[in-house]
Design goal:
Number of helices: 13
CATH topology of the domain at 187-340: Nucleotidyltransferase, domain 5
Distance between the termini: 85 Å
Radius of gyration: 27 Å
Strand order of the largest sheet: 5-4-3-6
CATH class of the domain at 187-340: Alpha Beta
Structural class: alpha+beta
Number of strands: 12
CATH superfamily of the domain at 187-340: Ribonuclease H-like superfamily/Ribonuclease H
């Protein structure tokens, strides 16, 4: 069993980059984060049928790769471990991947002589497997293979960070060109810094969120906005999924929005793999970068927008024409490629509630006046006990209504004008009764 996870940012690519704090990002619970990390590993195996390989073959390939463990660094995982996680996820979802605390937590059954010998062997054989080190302990008579148990020795290896260092694990894999052949096998997303728009006396920067299908070069979502944060990303992703279905992979860089716990939750709920570009290795995102270059050259050059609405209207006209033009990379238009080619997307149920898949949950404290604060807004929580901490469920791009507590009681932002008038004099009140 793996040691409990500390508080850390979710990361399961081979090298993680620094991220900027996002207002929607909250400190994750260690158990919850462990489950999300494990899902990040097996999600690629769950949706690998398009490669033509069997599950056993995909597990064998995964067992030969190195993974960035948040505590232990670069490690390798056995195929049986990955298979067990897949079984647990299919049986009960993301919650089944959580750590289950041991009854004997904090107790060690390994004598000091065996522990010291195992530590010495690891220093002598850094690339040997733990199983090989245990065989050496049996051969020289240090351990009788019965007491302490083999699982106790493996736990000691984890606690003392005595796992082997895979040969060549620090070598970064060479980048290779890749392409998928079915719509929805992989979507690529990124933000483009757009032109500035004058708002009064100030200039305000715009951002273009684009989600591009790798196989067809079809843009499943693109829109200008005022932010490159998590709320803008989840809003655009939800629109794309409602229109085209759930992709197998959602490929992004290491920006704060793409590394947010919210996006990891959404991917786990939808059963969508969430790979990230390794830090300082942007080659895998060449298609979306090339699209942004085309946008700058053909749409934004010489453009001086006076409002966000006019900027979006000009861009939408250009995007419609883009989908009908012949694309050099695929030899036809993106629209024809999408309509004529195979599809790998899964349809989102029509009766599905958006907050079930895309909603966010945070914990907030009730203030003395019966309100709570959430992302710059104040909400009036009727009947709430001041000082208590409650769970808040909400859609980050729509804060006109939130739901509080396990009963999900609806709450709206405080109407300050209405509250200011609640003590106005009532002309009927105070009149003396006429006999």
């Amino acid at each position: 069993m793996t040691r409990p996870f500390p508080l850390f940012s979710l990361a399961y690519t081979q090298i993680s980059g620094a991220t900027k704090e996002d207002p929607l990002e909250t400190h994750p619970h260690p158990v919850e984060t462990a489950a999300l990390w494990r899902y990040g590993l097996i999600s690629e195996l769950l949706h690998g049928c398009s490669t033509g390989l069997t599950l056993a073959e995909r597990l064998k390939e995964a067992a030969e790769r190195t993974w960035n463990h948040p505590v232990q660094g670069l490690i390798r995982l056995k195929a049986d471990t990955l298979r067990h996680w897949i079984y647990r996820y299919r049986k009960g979802g993301i919650s089944k991947l959580e750590d289950r605390p041991r009854r004997d937590k904090g107790k060690s059954q390994v004598p000091k002589s065996i522990a010291d010998k195992l530590t010495s062997l690891r220093g002598e054989y850094p690339h040997a497997t733990t199983e090989r080190l245990l065989d050496i302990l049996i051969e020289d008579g240090t351990w009788n293979a019965v007491r302490p148990s083999r699982s106790a020795l493996y736990r000691l290896v984890t606690i003392r960070s005595l796992k082997r260092k895979p040969a060549g694990a620090a070598i970064i894999q060479e980048a290779h060109a890749f392409a998928y052949d079915a719509f929805g096998q992989m979507w690529i997303a990124d933000f483009l810094h757009g032109p500035k728009i004058r708002i009064g006396r100030h200039l305000k920067k715009t951002y273009l969120l684009a989600i591009l299908d790798d196989a067809t070069r079809c843009v499943v979502f693109a829109a200008f906005g005022w932010s490159e944060g998590t709320a803008a990303l989840i809003d655009g992703l939800s629109m794309a999924i409602r229109r085209f279905g759930i992709p197998e992979r959602f490929y992004t860089d290491n920006g704060s929005a793409f590394r947010s716990r919210h996006l990891a939750h959404v991917a786990a709920k939808l059963g969508m793999h969430l790979p990230h570009t390794p830090a300082y290795r942007p080659q895998g995102r060449g298609k979306v970068e090339r699209f942004f270059r085309t946008v700058r050259e053909q749409c934004l050059t010489g453009l001086t927008p006076t409002s966000l609405e006019k900027l979006q209207a000009v861009f939408q006209d250009w995007l419609d024409a883009y989908h009908h033009r012949i694309h050099d990379g695929i030899g036809c238009s993106p629209l024809n490629k999408r309509l004529a080619g195979p599809k790998a997307t899964r349809t989102l149920p029509e009766v599905a509630q958006l907050d079930l898949f895309f909603g966010m949950q945070e914990r907030r404290k009730i203030h003395k006046n019966g309100t709570l604060h959430l992302h710059g807004k104040v909400f009036d929580i009727k009947g709430a006990l001041p000082g208590s901490v409650v769970d808040v469920h909400y859609l980050p791009w729509d804060l006109s209504l939130i739901h509080v507590g396990p009963e999900k009681i609806p709450a709206k932002p405080v109407d300050l004008i209405k509250n200011a008038r609640r003590h106005e004099h009532n002309p009927i009140r105070g009149k003396e009764k006429i006999v």
